[in-house]
Fold:
Amino acid sequence: MSLFSWILPENIPWLTLLLIIPLIGAMITLVMKGRNAKYVAGGFSLVTMILSFMLFLFVDDLSTMSENIAWIDVMGVKISYALGIDGLSLLMVGLTGLLVFLVTVFSTEKERPNLFFAMLLIMEVGLMGVYMAQDYFLFYVMWEVTLIPMYFMISWFGGPRRHYASIKFFIYTHVASLIMLIGIFAMVFQAGALSGGTADFSFAAVSAAAGGFTEMFQILVFGLLFFGFAVKMPVVPFHTWLPDAHVEAPTAGSVLLAAVMLKMGSYGIIRVCIENFQLGAEWWQPVMIVIALVSILYGAWACIAQKDLKKMVAFSSISHMGMVLLGIAMLSEWGLMFAMFQMFAHGLITAVLFMVCGITGHNVGTREIPLLGGLAGKMPKYAGFMVFGFLASLGLPGLVGFVAEFGIMYSFYEYLAGVDMIYLIALVLLSLMLTAGYYMWAMQRTIFGRETKKVDLSEVKDTNRAETAVLVVLCALIVLFGVMPSLVTDVLGSAAVLGVLP
Amino acid sequence: MTWIDSLNSAWDAILNAVDAVMPIWPQILILIAAVLVPGIYILTKNKKVAAGFTMVMLALTAVLVALKMHDGYTGVYADLFGFDAFSGLMMLLFLAVAFIVALISPSYSEGTKHHGEYYGLLLGATAGMMFVASASDLVSIFIGVELTSISTYALVALKKNDPRAAEGAVKYIIMGGLSTALTLYGMSLVYGITGTTNIADIAALLNGSGFTWAYAIAFITLIAGYGFKISAVPFHMWAPDVYEGAATPVSAFLAVGSKKMGIVVFLKIFLLMFIGVTITPVEELQYFFAILAAITMTVGNIVAISQTNIKRMLAYSSVSQAGYLLIIFAVASQYAVAAGMFHMITHVFMKGGAFIVVAALAGKIGENISDYRGLSKRAPFVALAMMLFLFSLAGIPLLAGFTSKFFLFSSALYAGGDAISGQWVWLVFVAVINSAISLYYYTKVIKAMYVDKGSETSRIKIPVSHAAALLICVIAVIVLGVYPQYVLGLCNDAAAALWAMVP
Structure:
């Protein structure tokens, strides 16, 4: 019995509230008119954020929070509305709560703000649902629920090529989800056959029977599920939807897409693939490592060539998500722990980066790197945040990204030492060099150096008060978790996946 | 013997007669209504009265069927028609289709002066479909199908001033006649082989016998004949022209009603007489249906992409839905039948709903997808309903179409609690890729309604009856998606009743 247990009494479905509050908020915002939508949406996302933080602070045993209600039980199929959290879920739920609130504060949508903020809140429902679901049916439903608001967000509020980008995003990720669904069918029905007939879609039932899966079955089904998740992450060569979607999406959409939605992919790999298919994971390990290394290097290399600042950040996301996959592929406690840490770290950092890109587009009028230059003189606060974000992203010690990348590199080194191929670490070091290179070069060409005179900078404004506040909060968190990583690793210690590793 | 005794015996005779036809009372009620409706219209000269009478009779019959199903009633009439959980559920489905179509018909502006005949034909077609649902004999199936076909030929042709309707009707009649001839030929061969037309007897006789060429030819001609009814590729050519040409309520009736009747025929003939019996290598027949399913859904979806007319697009999407339903016959398990029946039920509301939207907007805006631009501003409720129907058809979660596709596609892997078989995994792959393709063309319409800006911004008002029909469909699409438990249970009972007849 903890000192604070009275704060969250047990008989209230707190996790369901995390879904219902943003949903109600979305409904109300949807029917509103005018600029007040922002404040209503802000209120609802604030409450959601506070609730998700309270789970962090005041719950000792996360397993007490689970909820389970029978939903469909017919024809030998059992589906339940089951929610639950462990360390990993909690971290992602907290990140979602935080970022949705911050982007709501950050965004100033003038045209049809009610639709904009309603879409944000619906996306929050889906994201929260994915990270809390304990039933594969519910998991899939929530997974797909995130697509629709994102589609509308890009096609209503996006850039000039938004129609192409939104439909590409929609179809591409929908195909991946459907392939994943086939994997889910196979996994659940096989688990049902092993445990006596009823095909129970709950996570617990599948995990309990997973030990009986044959190696061949594990390899095949791991492949199906991995494909579904890998497209979402995304990894090379399934990444082509991401730069398009990012370039066209509004800033809030980009932030949520990169910071929380891509993490659905890596979350799925950890929660579904690694937890249930140890033999399959071992077979796929070399493939995952190769894909991860290719993603890391290709993402970094493509960054150098980008002219659009936002597209560069999008490709850097691919590189950093490759890092996550590399950590997962180690299949060691250390590797997985820091893969999860990197998910969290990248979520915070990439939010800063996309907000900075958004401000560039908004205040300067263009994000084309060759047209920019000497912005630091005109926009000192903006330049400060950009420098901070870039440094955090390239892994400056003392910031959160460094801890994550250090952990992953260390476990990769350990793995390579085990298989006697230490020279391969050079590839990752090369990517670090490339990363430092493209960030420095981009900084040089945009905020430092001379004004190019290609854009009119006489009227340009620095970040406004709301933007500054949001970015300060994010930067403070980046420092905080960089200096005290144990705040995160303590939470992650209760992640279920760490219990099943060989 | 006094006159009281003779009155009593007469009363008994009446009761006996009523009792004897108990299994087919629903059909009899509908047929009575079909005969009365033209007279009622001639007397009142009010098409709303005719529609109201039709709807009341349909609702009464539905209540009767539902009560009987609730009692668990089963009965057989003259070895031709039976009533059980399967036929009851299918009758309810057909009655629901007819009810929705009757609801939107009076306010449908384009068309005809023959309102009495219209409702008479509609009820006649419904009675035919109900006969098929309860038929247990090749002859009674044939009669039911013909009753429906001939009624719908006339329904398509009723819009007689429109050349497109005339073209559609002619195509429909010629193709229909051909399919009838082929079916009869196939049935006569089956009769020649077995000496009976009763499906259960045929199945029992064929069970365990060897392969014969007569049997193979019977199978092929029956597939060709009834493949036309469900518009399976390559027998689908008529569907887009007919749907485009016919009055939209009639198109809706054909797409969601008469096609379901085709699937019921498939279940009764091919599942019970061919796949169910161990006469030839059953596997090969299943592969035949798997390939038919794959081709049908792929062709339907790919052709649908390039359509600019929304009714043609919906027609091709109907073709692809028939492909999804053919998965039942490839997998051939009770689970698949139950899932397929659930998909048939959800399809009524989502596809029917989409057709109602087209009908509601007919005459106000065109039938091209580009005419739907900016609809969300002009008619918010209609646009929202259309979006829900299209997302449901594409299989977006928590809408009915997702839940039914979820069960239908999973049937290919489900082996009744045994270790899963990888036999039909390729078919699921084809199905999900198709599902993704269909999302593309459905999204095109949604984009036109919600993202594009239209040239006109004036509000569109739709008749109350259309709004009511849309509301019914929207509620059904949401409820069946979120809470499928009850209806899935009914489907499971129905599938069990059908499956019990497999020898």
The beta strands of chain A are 67-74, 77-83, 199-200. The two ends of chain A are 32 Å apart (CA to CA). Residues 93 and 128 of chain A are 6 Å apart (CA to CA). Residues 162-194 of chain A form the longest helix (33 residues).
